[in-house]
Amino acid sequence: MSRRRAPLLTLLLAVGVMPAQARVRLGEPLPAHPWVSAGREVVVVYSHDCGDLGALWTAILASGLPVRAVNAEDIPAPAPTGVPAWRGADATAFARTLRVGTYPAVLLVQGGRILNAWEGTFAGDLGLAGLDDPGQP
Question: In terms of C-beta density within 10 A (0-12 exposed, 13-18 middle, 19 or more buried), how is residue 12 classed?
């Protein structure tokens, strides 16, 4: 009798030894939140220890999209003038339900679902040109 490997068991063992990583999942709906969703919007999930977010906020605000600020982890940190920050235990629960692995997390949301996400590495381009013009690659 030939010895066969159990592919499912091998996969489960391999997954079990990999470190667990939080990852925001594209296509998932946003968890419960206190704002009325816009057609397309940007959600910034950040904490007090993100450092200077001036360039990030400038790029986000330049998009012209509605911006939602979620200040997670229970220590207040400012958002730009005119952008109310959601704070407290519910904001932290929102970030954890999303499985945010690194702050700041920038989420491009359309119709209440996550269209794109950047965790800790947002360079200022939301990729809107390709979304608005189907002829673009």
Answer: exposed
**Measuring CA to CA, how many Å separate 42 from each of 17, 126, 134?**
35, 9, 21
Residue range 30-58, pLDDT digits in tens: 999 999 988 899 999 999 888 888 889 99
Q: For the domain bounded by 21-120, which CATH number is listed?
A: 3.40.30.10
38: tokens are: 């816009």
Distance of CA 57 to the CA centre of its chain: 15
Report pTM: 0.78
- Return the domain boundaries, the chain: 21-120
| CA dist list (Å): 101 to 15, 47, 78, 119 | 18, 12, 21, 7
> pLDDT tens digits for 57-114?
999 999 999 999 999 998 999 999 999 999 999 999 999 999 988 999 999 999 999 9
